Amino acid sequence: MDAPAPWERQPGEPARAYTNFCLYRDLLPAERSLRKVAERVAESSSKPRRVSAVVRQLQRWSSRWRWVERAAAWDAELDRRRREAMLKEARETQERHLRMARAMLTIVARRLQQIDPAELTPKDAARWVQVAAELERLALEQPTAVLEHRGTPAEQWINAILEVWRRRQAGGEGGSGADRSA
After folding, report:
1. Quick one: DSSP state of residue 180?
2. DSSP assignment string, 90-142
3. Span 40-50, mean pLDDT?
4. DSSP 153
5. Which value, to the nearest 10 degrees, does the dihedral of the CA atoms of residues 173, 177, 181, 182 take?
6. With 70 as the cut, is the pLDDT of residue 116 above it?
7. How far apart are CA 109 and CA 103, in angstroms?
8. What is the rounded distance in angstroms from the CA atom of residue 92 to the CA atom of residue 47?
9. I need a surface site. Which of 11, 70, 99, 163 has the fewest CB within 10 A?
10. What is the band of 177 on the pLDDT scale with cuts at 50, 70, 90?
11. Are residues 162 and 155 in contact, defined by beta-carbon separation less than 8 angstroms?
C-alpha cells in the first residue's frame, strides 16, 4: 500500500493532531506559525485555554509529525498544481487562437475569390492576409517580426502586390491602366 502524501493524515497520527496540522498547513506560508494556530484553537475551544499551553502541545505534535516539512510539501504541491493549470490554460488559448486564425484565413480566401477586384484595393487584400497570417504565427509561437530592416514576409508580400498593381495602373505588365475604371 502506498504511503499517504505528506499533507494528508499519516499512519498513527491522532485526529486532533491532524486537525491542528491542517490549520497550520492552510495558513499562508508567510503567516504560518504555531502561535497563530494556538490562538485559533484557544478561541474556538469550549473550555478556556491558555495560548501558551496550546503552543506547547502544538510544538510536540509539530516535531513528532514533521509539520514544517509536510507544510512545505503542501506548498510545493499547490505550486505544481498552479503551474499545471497555467500551462493547460496556455495550451487551450494557443489552440483557440490557432483555430481562429485559420478560420480567418479561410474566410479571407473565400471573400477574396468573391470580390470584384475593382472593389478591393491590393493594399486592403494584403492587409487582410497580413493580419490573419500574423495571428496564425502568434498562435504557433513563431516570430512575427524580423530584426533586419528587410521587412517581414507579409510586408514583402504586400510590397510585391503593390508593385504589380502600380505596373498595371501605369499600363505595364498584365494589362493597361485604361482597362480599369478609376
Report:
1. S
2. HHHHHHHHHHHHHHHHHHHHHHHHHS-TTTS-HHHHHHHHHHHHHHHHHHTT-
3. 88
4. H
5. 120
6. yes
7. 10
8. 53
9. 11
10. very low
11. no
